[in-house]
Amino acid sequence: MLISLTVPYAPAIQTKVLAYFDRDGRAEITDAVGAIAGRFRVYLVITTGTSLLTGIASAAWSYSVGLELALIWGILNFLLNFVPVVGNLVGIVPPVLYAVIQFDGATMPLVVLAGFAIIQVTISNFVYPALQGGGVSMPAIVIVIGLLFWSWLWGFAGALLAVPLTAAFVIASQHFASTRWIADLATQDQSKAPAPNSDG
């Protein structure tokens, strides 16, 4: 909602902000904004794609092992995949608990757990990083801190946007000498922060 309210005023806000800087400063600000916008677009596309893949795989696995409400588990994991770190873990719990109720014994719940765990680990640790490519790579601790902060600030909407907002902050920090140390600390390569991704 906040984004939808501010979008119509974005050009005017940009003009007013740039007015406070000299030519070099305006160029630097413009580059930073462009990099952030590009990174945000890439994040939305990749996260939506991997979330859809997670949802389809979750529903397919549930159906293949005879777990009821397969479509529900697929939709649930699709939505929770947008929440970094925590969403992947939370998405496993409901179907496993339901499997405990539906099936006798521990075998099938363990099978359900194994399948969901493999799906989450594969997509989160292999598919997503491969698609992300040369974007800003942040350690898990930075993502968790960002998740806690933005969730505290904006609730569930903040949790959904935690990664792109944190990445935007890191990219913006990379563009200015006085804040470049923040980007160095907040990225995987401690010796050198990656160049901002300016896709688009």
Automatic annotation (TrEMBL):
Subcellular localization: Membrane
Keyword Transmembrane helix included in the entry's annotation: yes
Membrane topology value: Multi-pass membrane protein
Record-level GO cellular component terms: membrane
Residues annotated as transmembrane: 42-64, 70-98, 110-128, 140-172
GO BP terms, alphabetized: transmembrane transport
Keywords: Membrane, Transmembrane, Transmembrane helix
Record-linked PANTHER family: AI-2 TRANSPORT PROTEIN TQSA (PTHR21716:SF64), TRANSMEMBRANE PROTEIN (PTHR21716)
Family stated for the protein in its record: Belongs to the autoinducer-2 exporter (AI-2E) (TC 2.A.86) family.
Protein's name according to its UniProt entry: AI-2E family transporter
Protein's organism: Aurantimonas aggregata
